[in-house]
Every structure is written in structure tokens, then in C-alpha cells.
Write a sequence for this structure.
């Protein structure tokens, strides 16, 4: 089994692995040193990079503090909060947020967010890559020129695949190898060493600049599992600032010119003044909102007490506490089941927030570590764990090859990735493929290749007794548990009936180091072909599902469709059926695309029917 060599030849830059908290407001690198994680510092100050990019007139970009300094003078060309747009379509983004942005955001042909500055457009990944590159550069300076090779990067627990993939892509663009993407609440818990607990439940309350989330984690033998997450992607310090900005506006309303409040530089000025007062109120009983912009006729100086501030932000804090209650309910737990509470994010310094969280969970939250640093510290701890810390441990505590299941069409779906730390548990949801299916056979696989036939078969088992229902409705959770000795137990459970079945296998049994190397080499050699084959069988499976739906609905909707649409559909159905047997990826792809397009009129007719049904029987006012 290989491991990554850290010591390098003299005269060469030292290559290191770091943890990066890639935040909405700020990003921060940390490293493991002398047995504990520590935030990287330059001349005593944290190597913090504001997650801000400023694009100059000549199109060049600057990042971090110098970019943030441009926020007031040149807000239209200074981009903050790009994390909100990672892997998102424009339609996913709250219009209220778009309204508040001083810079221009539009969508690409494919509906994805793009940010426009001067005559250039950037994807969120590109901007994020610029931030990551700056973080790596700062980290390098902090370590006397060490070269940053790889990193553990954190993301919110609720990030979906597209958002995680966008984060990986950003790192790749920045030339950083991603050792692992880790959930922020897990990182925060690791920073507090909670993985040392035999078992317990942790609530991680994270109120940052732009987002709030609460995660309920369970720990079992040092393994974290996210039981539930809740939150609000549009609740954070920015909203607290907005409350104070409203107060400034009320004060300024009498004297300011009418167009003032829409002006980007007024907005940035008011934002900075609000944040300053807010931060002061975390440690003082009162503060002043100060904004002087003579060119707009604005000259505000307003005293605000902690009580007034608390009253004004109570609705925001209440929203966060409601989310906590929901997260607990979703996890099937009560407050008494929570053993530890961890606070993350700069906004948890607000005294009212701390008090309300403590009151709700009935226990004092961990605040020993800096809430702005705890995620980065945890990322560094995770990096250390993955790098093996002591090499003896590495040799026994990672799985050398990925483990997974065969899916419809013969593809291999990996549940446990190669080099995952063991022991570990991963659960993924599967469903039935045909209507009325009452049993599923699981084929457990080991290896890196895309097709099941090219992986090593570890065993098969069958889950029976699934109540008959339409395809895709059954919910089967499949859990891969790999214990510290490398013994894999795979358990499948159908949710509605509670039916379970399982198998125990020893994945590493009989595999020598050479065999592992050969399997890895093969997967590299065959990567392109494997990928295409995987794509082909996935497409064929998708065509199968589309055909079933289309044929079932065509009978119902035929009379509402014009003749041409019906002919197109019938042709597309015939072509798709033929392509299902094709071995050419291009043919299969083309047939799927043709079928997809041909179903548009059918979908429109069906939607129309649904809408009519929904509207029928309701008063106009209800609609
Ligand atoms: P984060 O995204 O975790 O870096 O959180 C940044 C947010 O925390 C911003 O909205 C800051 O204004 C806010 N923040 C930082 N320090 C304080 C403080 N002392 N009191 C209140 N809010 C703070």
C-alpha cells in the first residue's frame, strides 16, 4: 500500500498538506503542527483571506484584503459571497439576495450563474479558484515558502453533489489536489477532538456572514454521521447588518437625496458602518452607527444600546432556533440527547445568539476555540488523520480500494472511496427499477473501475419482501460499514416495511500489495474507455425509465397531442428501443436526446392537465 512521502530532498520546497475553510466571507488555512491543529499566521496575524475578488479596469483580478478595500470605491467590480453561487442555477438564488448585490449576476446558456465584471464573465468556480490560490499563497508565505500540494477543503453539510463538485473544480483550477471535501460541522467537531468520544450526539450551530446552518451529528467509535441538517442559506451576519442599515436609512431619509439609497457606494458605506457597530455591540453595552457621505447629504450618528440591538435582531435569532428544533426533530432526538454543542462562525459572538443557543439546548456550548477558526482547525485535523500522522496507523486505517455496488446496467457505484479512513460507515439510498419489484439483488464490489465486470466481486445478497409499488418509490438504505479490522458489513433496509438483509465480507482478504497496484494501474490505463462504457450503460438505464413513463403517459394524453408530435414521439420511442442495444456511446446519447426533445409536447399536455385539475374546484382567490 502506498503512502504520501512528506520529507523531500534538501533545497526543494517542502511540500505540505493543509486544511482550508473556504468561507462565504473569509477563507482560512490551517496546518497540523506539534500534535495539534493551528491556524497559519503571518507576522502573528491569521493568514485570513477575505473571500473577495476585485477586477481592475484592465481585467486583472486581485483577491483578499486588497480586493475588499475596493468594496467602497468600486463596488460594481468587487465580488463577495461567491460561495452562495457555487454549483447553482440563477433560478436557485433568492431574488432578494440578487437585489442586494452591487455587482452584476446573470445566467449562462445553461442557466448557471455567471458574474459579470467590466466586459468579462466569470463562473463561481473561477472566482473561488482565485480565492483558493490566494489562500495557498498566503499559507506558503506563512510556512516560509513551502509548496502547497494538497488540501482538505470544507463545505456546508447541506451542499449537494453539484456544489461539492464545483468546489473540487475550483481547487483543480487553483492547482490544488483535494485530499477530501469535509463537512464543516464535522470539521468543527474534530477541532474540539470530539472524535475521541466513544459515542454521543453533537449539535453544531454555525452562524456565519451569509448563511446559517445547524447540523446534528452522531459519533460512534470516532466516526461522524450527519443525522440531519437544517438552516437558512440566507440568514447570517449580513442580515444583522441589514437591520442596522435600515436604522441608518431611517436616520438619513430626511436629508439624503432621493437616489442615494440605491447607490452602490452608499450601500457599501452603510454596510461597513453597520458591521462596525454590530461588532462593537458584541463586547460593549452600546455603540454608535456612524456614516458620513456629504456627497449624498448623509450624516448619520446614532447611538444604539445592546437592548435595542437585541430587540431588533430577535426575529433573526428566533429563526435560527426554530431551525434547531426542526433539525432535532428530523434526527429523531430531543434536546436531552445532545451531548455537546459547538459554535461556529463569526456571528456566534453576538451575546444574544449564545444565550439563546444555550437556553435551547440546555447546555453551555463550546466556545474555547475562536469561532472563525474552528472549521479550518478541523480541516487541518482531518488532513492529519488522512495523511496518517504516524505512518503505522496509515497502513492499517485506510481502505486500499473503493467498495461499492453494481447498479442497473452493470455500472459500479462506489460507496466507500479508496483511502477512506477505517472504521467507517456510509449509507446511500437506492430504489426499485421496475413497477411492483419486490426484491433487489445487491452485488458488492471492490476496485476502481467504472464497470462492475472489471471490479472484484466480493459477494451477492438479496433483499426480499419489498411491498409492491411503482418503480422509484421504494426507499432502500444501503449501509456499508467497514470496521477497524477491514471487515465489511453491507446492510440493506427497505424503509416502509423495515425488511433488512445483509452480508459480511473481508475485502482485503487475499489481496496482496502488488494486486492492489495492478488494479489501480488498470483503472488509470482504462480510464477513458471505462468512463464511456459507464456513461453508455447509465444512459441505457435512463432511456429505460424514460420509455416506461413515456409509453404509459402517451396512451392517456394521445388525444390531446397533435399528429406530428405523436409521430415524432413514436419514432423517438422506436429509435430509443433500438439504441438500448447499441454498443456505441454516441448513438445511445443521440437517441436519448431525441427522445428527451420528443417528450416536451407530451410533458406540456400532462402539466396542463395537472394544473387544470388543481385549479378545478378552487375559488379564484385560492389559486
Ligand atoms: P464567518 O462567515 O464565519 O467568517 O462570519 C463572518 C460574520 O461574522 C460577519 O457577518 C461578521 O460581521 C460577523 N462577526 C465577526 N465578528 C463579530 C463579532 N465580534 N460580533 C458579531 N458579529 C461578528
Amino acid at each position: 500500500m502506498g503512502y504520501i512521502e512528506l520529507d523531500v530532498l534538501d533545497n526543494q520546497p517542502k511540500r505540505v498538506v493543509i486544511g482550508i475553510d473556504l468561507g462565504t466571507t473569509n477563507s482560512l488555512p490551517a496546518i497540523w503542527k506539534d500534535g495539534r491543529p493551528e491556524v497559519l499566521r503571518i507576522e502573528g496575524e491569521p493568514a485570513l483571506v477575505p473571500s473577495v475578488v476585485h477586477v481592475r479596469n484592465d481585467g486583472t483580478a486581485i483577491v483578499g484584503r486588497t480586493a475588499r478595500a475596493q468594496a467602497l470605491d468600486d463596488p460594481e467590480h468587487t465580488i463577495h459571497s461567491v460561495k452562495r453561487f457555487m454549483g447553482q442555477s440563477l433560478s436557485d438564488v433568492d431574488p432578494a439576495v440578487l437585489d442586494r448585490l452591487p455587482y452584476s449576476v446573470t445566467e449562462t446558456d445553461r442557466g448557471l450563474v455567471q458574474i459579470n465584471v467590466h466586459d468579462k464573465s466569470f463562473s463561481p468556480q473561477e472566482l473561488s479558484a482565485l480565492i483558493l490560490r490566494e489562500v495557498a499563497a498566503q499559507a506558503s508565505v506563512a510556512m516560509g515558502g513551502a509548496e502547497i500540494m494538497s488540501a482538505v477543503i470544507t463545505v456546508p453539510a447541506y451542499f449537494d453533489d453539484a456544489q461539492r463538485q464545483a468546489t473540487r473544480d475550483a481547487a483543480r483550477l487553483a492547482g490544488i489536489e483535494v485530499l477530501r471535501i469535509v463537512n464543516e460541522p464535522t470539521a468543527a467537531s474534530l477541532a474540539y477532538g470530539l472524535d475521541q468520544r466513544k459515542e454521543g450526539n453533537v449539535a453544531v450551530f454555525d452562524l456565519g456572514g451569509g448563511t446559517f446552518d445547524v447540523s446534528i451529528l452522531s459519533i460512534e467509535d470516532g466516526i461522524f454521521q450527519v443525522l440531519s441538517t437544517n438552516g437558512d442559506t440566507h440568514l447570517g451576519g449580513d442580515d444583522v447588518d441589514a437591520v442596522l442599515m435600515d436604522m441608518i436609512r431611517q436616520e438619513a431619509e430626511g436629508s439624503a437625496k432621493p437616489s442615494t439609497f440605491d447607490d452602490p457606494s452608499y450601500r457599501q458605506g452603510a454596510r461597513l458602518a453597520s458591521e462596525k457597530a454590530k461588532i462593537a455591540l458584541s463586547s460593549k453595552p452600546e455603540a454608535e452607527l456612524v456614516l458620513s457621505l456629504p456627497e449624498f447629504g448623509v450624516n448619520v450618528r446614532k447611538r444604539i444600546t445592546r437592548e435595542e440591538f437585541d430587540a431588533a435582531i430577535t426575529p433573526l435569532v428566533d429563526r435560527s432556533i426554530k431551525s434547531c428544533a426542526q433539525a432535532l426533530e428530523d434526527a429523531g432526538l430531543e434536546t436531552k440527547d445532545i451531548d455537546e454543542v459547538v459554535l461556529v462562525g463569526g456571528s456566534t459572538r453576538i451575546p444574544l445568539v449564545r444565550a439563546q443557543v444555550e437556553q435551547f439546548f440546555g447546555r453551555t456550548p463550546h466556545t474555547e476555540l475562536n469561532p472563525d477558526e474552528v472549521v479550518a482547525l478541523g480541516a487541518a485535523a482531518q488532513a492529519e488523520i488522512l495523511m496518517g500522522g504516524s505512518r503505522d496507523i496509515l497502513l492499517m486505517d485506510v481502505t486500499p480500494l473503493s467498495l461499492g455496488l453494481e447498479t442497473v446496467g452493470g455500472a459500479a457505484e462506489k460507496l466507500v472511496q479508496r483511502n477512506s479512513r477505517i472504521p467507517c460507515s456510509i449509507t446511500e439510498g437506492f430504489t426499485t427499477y421496475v413497477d411492483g419489484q419486490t426484491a433487489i439483488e445487491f452485488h458488492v464490489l471492490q476496485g476502481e473501475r467504472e464497470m462492475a465486470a472489471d471490479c472484484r466481486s466480493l459477494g451477492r445478497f438479496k433483499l426480499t419482501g419489498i411491498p409492491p409499488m411503482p418503480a422509484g418509490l421504494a426507499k432502500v438504505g444501503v449501509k456499508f460499514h467497514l470496521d477497524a479490522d477491514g471487515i465489511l458489513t453491507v446492510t440493506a433496509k427497505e424503509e416502509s416495511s423495515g425488511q433488512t438483509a445483509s452480508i459480511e465480507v473481508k475485502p482485503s482478504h487475499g489481496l496482496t500489495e502488488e494486486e492492489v497496484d495492478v488494479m489501480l494501474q488498470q483503472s488509470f490505463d482504462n480510464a477513458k474507455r471505462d468512463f464511456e462504457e459507464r456513461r453508455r450503460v447509465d444512459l441505457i438505464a435512463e432511456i429505460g425509465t424514460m420509455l416506461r413513463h413515456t409509453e404509459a403517459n402517451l396512451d392517456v394524453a394521445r388525444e390531446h397531442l397533435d399528429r406530428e408530435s405523436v409521430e415524432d414521439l413514436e419514432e423517438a420511442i422506436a429509435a430509443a428501443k433500438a439504441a438500448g442495444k447499441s454498443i456505441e456511446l454516441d448513438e445511445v446519447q443521440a437517441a436519448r436526446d431525441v427522445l428527451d426533445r420528443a417528450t416536451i409536447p407530451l410533458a406540456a399536455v400532462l402539466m396542463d392537465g395537472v394544473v387544470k385539475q388543481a385549479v378545478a374546484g378552487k375559488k379564484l382567490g385560492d389559486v
The radius of gyration is 27 Å. The chain has four domains: 5-235+314-395, 237-313, 403-511, 526-615. The chain is about 40% helix and 25% strand. Residues 285 and 306 are 5 Å apart (CA to CA).
